UniProtKB/TrEMBL annotation:
Coiled-coil spans in chain: 292-319
Keyword set, alphabetical order: Coiled coil
Protein name: J domain-containing protein
Domain of life, per lineage: Bacteria
Amino acid sequence: MSKDKLIVFDKIKKGKPKKNPKTLTDQLTILWAKVQKLKNRNNRITSDLVNMKSAYEEYVEKEHKQRFQELYKLIEQLLFLEKDAKLSSKQRQVFQGIINQLMVDALQSPFIDTMGFRDLIPEYKSAHEKKSKKKTKTQQKNERKQEVLNYLQYKSNHLENIESYFSEEQWLEMLSNDEKVKKYFDQIIAPILYQKQLKKAIHEANNVHNSKEKHNIDNQTNTLEIKHTSVNSLYKQLAKKLHPDKTQDVHEKDKFHDLMIVISTAKKENDLITLLNLYTEYFKEENVKFNESEAEHLYQILKNQLSKLEEEKANLLSSPMDEYIYKIFAGVSGRGITKKAYSMANDEKVIFQQYQHLLNELPDELSLKNYLQNYI
């Protein structure tokens, strides 16, 4: 492409992406369409998530928590009873199938840490690996040590060589006393984890700072060198034309006020895409054109925007609860969200009652054996 040839922005904005892009215009058209698609997706997630969380809190939250609180008690009770119950191989097979199903439900919930489900994993794993044959004292000791080790590794997020942090005397105490396991974890491992987390936080803070510094330098360079891909230039022109003081019409003044909020936010966030969209909408008499250097710069901006929008999506679903809520309401919108929330609340109550009934039905080892026998 010659230096005198200009790329018309309308061809990028309104053009149809080609499967085999040959020109810079084609490449820009594809990138522009992708950016718009991701922006719309993120806006939709933002809007839907507000409605989903509202419906969840109003209809589902109370029943949801009750169900998982009851599930925790049920799993804990089953694992406790299984320790002393002398199960046949078939009974153990049924038991493992039931406990597997319950644990999968628990570990896929947003309450995996807040309700302590993760702490049940070592006991669950130990129960899963047990066999019906009798074990020697050495085997029992080794299994107990592995059980404690599993617990420590899960609590420490798999700290390397965790076994070496404890003396032989401390290990003997932990093998015979669960309270000692928690005590030594808090005394020895917790401070180590804190220091690791502190170092990680400092490292991440330095990376953010360096990224912002680079971002600011890039922005200054862009503003000096480029006209139509300058955020400041587009902002000034839009603000001048769309300022609320430019009109006396009350409705139009309100509209301009809302637009200025959008424009100011775009400037603050260095959102060139939004400003370009608004510019072409309100300066229709001007046909925005890019020379080769501007077009290549826009190409890089659009590529960076794609990465930023993906990061933005991750931040929109920033907590396990947000992810869970968005997942369970996936595929519904509008009034459908409320309808599904109401239906889910009823389902949660039914499951809660089932767990409650099972807890009452299994007060001791004998009742557990009889219950399992019904499935053989």
